[in-house]
Amino acid sequence: MVSATERLEEVKADIRSSETVHGRKEGSATLIAVSKTYDADVIRPVLAAGQRMFGENRVQEAMGKWPALREEFDGIELHLIGPLQSNKAREAVATFDVIHTVDRPKIAGALKAEMDRQGRDLPCFVQVNTGEEPQKAGIAPNDVDEFVRHCREDIGLTIVGLMCIPPVEEAPGEHFALLEKIAGRNGLTQLSMGMSADFAIAVGFGATHVRVGSAIFGTRDYG
Length: 223
Description:
By secondary structure, this protein is α/β, with parallel strands linked by helices. Helices cover about 45% and strands about 15% of the residues. It has helices at about 5-20, 40-50, 60-70, 90-95, 105-120, 145-155, 170-185, 200-205, 215; strands at about 30-35, 55, 75-80, 100, 125-130, 160-165, 190, 210.
């Protein structure tokens, strides 16, 4: 059976290969290992192999396993890549280093208030609903410019980039291209896009952060 550390190296090699094919500088696309649903014993070998950037979907889950892992390993950077409720803003700001899912004014305001209270300034991504799917979180493409301006100028958040999750039944490339275009006109240089099935494609469209879970840790058991 292939181990998580072996799959980690395969994913990293695929990222580097896509960078080369698309004429990008080596290391310009950063791997976020998505560790949601996996316990510390599964994550620890990947940490031991040198991976330091991880993504979690749920605040409570992250609070339960990462404090102990941070004591064991230096340099961990934890990214919130799942939906956030405003009543979890305090815990999110205390637990995470980067927020990828700023998707409405209430969340933006709650995050900024907690950052000020805790003396932290976390970089944030605005989540864009590129497919305008009603069941999915995110700002509609036509509303992103104004929302980014509002977050920056009115609220005072540090917005560093955009994030998207393309519709599963559509070719991801067109959504990655759209996100890249919107980011460009807003002066944003970071793009959080691409997951286990399409991260190599995302690198070709300028992804600076790819969020890969099952290709490293294996198929999840949501039971």
